[in-house]
Write a structure and sequence with these properties.
Strand order of the largest sheet: 1-2
Strand content: under 5%
Largest sheet: 2 strands, antiparallel
CATH superfamily of the largest domain: Homeodomain-like
Radius of gyration: 19 Å
Number of domains: 2
Helix content: 55-70%
Order of helices and strands: HEEHHHHHHHH
Number of helices: 9
Structural class: mainly alpha
CATH class of the largest domain: Mainly Alpha
Distance between the termini: 14 Å
Number of strands: 2
């Protein structure tokens, strides 16, 4: 689950199936009781109809948690954290960053850093389109060391400078779920 909408869909499906739950959070569900294999299969099918997937493999769940933390941080927090993201991720997930990084790269085919950059670039596009902040303010808000760093990274990923991107009205953004996949 990567959005509030996903949480709502999961809760609705659990209610429909009469499955009692304690918590539905982004990336995880805590049930109050064991469910039958039939209920699990019904739940899996219902989620698939909504474009979601039931994950039980611990490594897959950890990958989803990494993605969700990054997405939440880049797209939904007012300001990015000011500590190293590797330290933040390790602390949040109680795992060594090297383990998380190797697992993520192995499964996703890209590094955590590349995933973060892809999301930051998408967030920059959004902020440029909304035209509420200038490039200096965007760089500060997304924790770039300078406007030049933001501009270089943006151009490397998109092939356009931020100012050129701003001029292109037909350039569309990517859905959050498709970034880094």
């Amino acid at each position: 689950m990567v959005s509030v909408r996903c949480k709502i869909v999961v809760k609705e499906e659990l209610y429909k199936l009469g499955i009692q739950f304690a918590i539905v959070d982004i990336g995880e569900v805590n049930l109050m009781e064991d469910i039958t294999p039939e209920q699990k299969e019904e739940f899996r099918a219902a989620l698939l109809k909504s474009g979601l997937e039931l994950m039980e493999d611990k490594k897959s769940v950890l990958i989803e948690k990494i993605k969700n933390i990054i997405i939440d941080m880049v797209h939904y927090k007012e300001d990015l954290i000011k500590i190293k993201f590797s330290d933040y991720l390790s602390e949040k997930l109680n795992h060594d960053y090297t383990y998380l990084s190797n697992l993520f790269s192995e499964v996703q085919g890209i590094t955590i850093e590349q995933f973060i950059i892809a999301h930051k670039i998408e967030r920059i596009k959004e902020m440029i389109i909304y035209d509420e902040l200038n490039i200096s303010e965007i760089a500060w808000k997304l924790n770039y060391s300078s406007v030049a760093h933001l501009s270089n990274q943006f151009k490397k990923v998109t092939g356009l400078s931020p100012s050129h991107f701003k001029q292109l009205k037909e350039k569309r953004r990517s859905p959050i779920e498709d970034i880094g996949n």
